[in-house]
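User: I'm writing a tutorial on reading structure tokens. Could you give me a worked example: one chain, its sequence, then its tokens, then a sentence or two explaining what the tokens reveal?
Assistant: Sure. Here is the example chain.
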Amino acid sequence: MTETQATQDLLQKFDEISVKFGGAKAALGKVVFGQDEVIDLTLATLAAGGHGLLVGAPGLAKTLLVTSVADLLGLSAKRVQFTPDLMPGDVLGSEVLEESASGRREFRFVPGPIFCQLLMADEINRASPRTQSALLQAMQEQHVTVAGERHDLPAPFHVLATQNPIEQEGTYPLPEAQLDRFLLQIDVQYPDLDSERKMLAATTGSDQSDVSAVMSADDLIAAQKLVRQMPIGEQVVDAILKLVRGARPTDDANEKVKQFVAWGPGPRASQAFSLAARSLALIEGRHAPSLDDVRRLAGPVLRHRMALNFSARSEGIDVNSFIEDLVAGAC
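And here are its predicted structure tokens:
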């Protein structure tokens, strides 16, 4: 196969997967109203092979979104309600001692709910740090270790976690290492008036919309491979590096960053930018990412990977507005 034929074959695969993602977006829009950006970012997270953290007030269809995504993409899904008394074994699984008919005793591993293709970690910040940390190895390495034995997770494996930003009592803030494992933090806002009107009509009548699979797990794996094959321009790479490195309070940072940033994003933020920008391009039918993708992804990529200090909070500066200023200076 010549280089031209290989390129044409690759472009054809891009277009075929883009069409399938277009069908998924259209179907999601019929059950989750007024959340087009959230839908795009959630699908981009999965196409990039990453995990997503959905942050929003109760009743904004976060759970419905995750379950609908699982149905549309043909993924086996399980839901875990995180609570303060949830133990690591409740998520990962545990070994039980069994006795055979002959009287021989041996341990048998009983898999936990994490052994699925799409895990919904509902209200993840309600669990103790010990239980939260049980997800770290799974999210990074796609396997878990129980009693010294390795157990591989199904492929693909994704975590979509939800977090309620207004509930503080009885919660445990996610540690930086845990937050960094999430490719994107997707803020779920209230729908606009027209969208809420459509939602009201669609969800309180006699006919209820449902979704059926438009893709398979194999399609998603193929999409993830295509994302990594997609070219990314030097101008886009330079903007990503300038933005990420410019958010760190190092000696050569600008005075505003030194003054207000407690800790900044690590190299995993640059990786997330690159993969998410390419996956956004793929699901929207484009063959390469642009600077607009970098601007669009700045908040979702950076807001959970950096923290402002007390000086910033005392002056009323929040992380989202700070990131907007960084974007204006970088691209």
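What the tokens reveal: The two ends are 39 Å apart (CA to CA). Residues 3-29 form the longest helix (27 residues).
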